Amino acid sequence: MSAVRSKICGITRIEDALAAVEAGADAIGFVFYAKSPRAVTFAQARAIIKALPPFVTTVGLFVNASRCELGEILDAVPLDLLQFHGDETADECESWNRPYIKALRVKAGDDIAAACNAFPSASGILLDAYVEGVPGGTGEAFDWSLIPQGLSKPIILAGGLTPDNVAEAITRTRPYAVDVSGGVEASKGIKDHAKIQAFIKAVRDVTAG
Questions:
Q1: Fewer beta carbons within 10 angstroms: which end of the chain, N or C?
Q2: What CATH number is given to the structural domain containing 110?
Q3: Residue 8 and residue 24: Cα distance in Å, rounded?
Q4: Reaction catalysed by this chain (predicted)?
Q5: Is the dihedral of CA 191, 197, 200, 203 positive or negative?
Q6: Which residue has better confidence, 84 or 131?
Q7: Residues noted as catalytic
Q8: What is the pLDDT of residue 133?
Q9: What pairs with residue 83 in β-bridges?
Q10: Whole-Å CA distances, 131 to 95, 105, 136, 185
């Protein structure tokens, strides 16, 4: 099986970011959504990114952000990749001329292939659990059997992943990458370094087997 990349999202502290990188994370995610318990300020995100070594992808998560708000963040914070988690259209995502991934909240009956095809310029599609009224970060898993084979974009699997279930998730869905936040936390926004290490080890072990 090809190597699967790991993203640790909802980072709010420098020590947690460095622990994720030390464990082997490929990407670090920052939540720019005020309603999230994992939301960060411009200053927090800048300070964390400044502390990172090279070759770690920095990702900013947005939920229906206004052009003014998103523009201010992009001017202030050096992000490598944008992650749109709201109702953004393909045109809105493309308008920033930055690499981006689009999150889809999966539920039974969805045409995931068509939804992927609706974002032809996306670098990848993130699949998360659908929970009424909540854009993401719920810690809920979804039925992985809903994911069809042969999708047009690299798939990032999210939603309820933990060190205990990520190997099974990868075996069943063969994603390009996995994305975790709550599954490696001590409390909301505060990461458990041992859980991060266990999560990334499980990802590497299953793909090396």
A1: C
A2: 3.20.20.70
A3: 10
A4: N-(5-phospho-beta-D-ribosyl)anthranilate = 1-(2-carboxyphenylamino)-1-deoxy-D-ribulose 5-phosphate
A5: negative
A6: 84
A7: 9, 128
A8: 60
A9: 61, 101
A10: 28, 8, 8, 20
Count up the domains in the chain and report the number. Answer: 1
Contact 138, 158 (CB under 8 A): no
DSSP H stretches of helix in the chain = 14-23, 42-51, 67-76, 90-94, 112-117, 166-173, 193-208
pLDDT at 2: 83
Cβ atoms of 16 and 190 closer than 8 Å: yes
What's the sign of the alpha-carbon dihedral 140, 180, 101, 10?
positive
CA-based torsion, 44, 24, 180, 65: positive or negative: positive
Handedness of CA 135, 141, 144, 149 (dihedral sign): positive
Q: What is the mean pLDDT of residues 140-161?
A: 92
Which pLDDT tens digit goes with each residue over 69-117? 999 999 999 999 999 999 999 999 999 999 999 999 998 888 999 999 9
Instruction: For residue 30, list its beta bridge partners.
Output: 60
Domain that holds residue 15: 5-208
Six token digits for residue 23: 């464990």
The gap between the terminal CA atoms of the chain, to the nearest Å, is 8
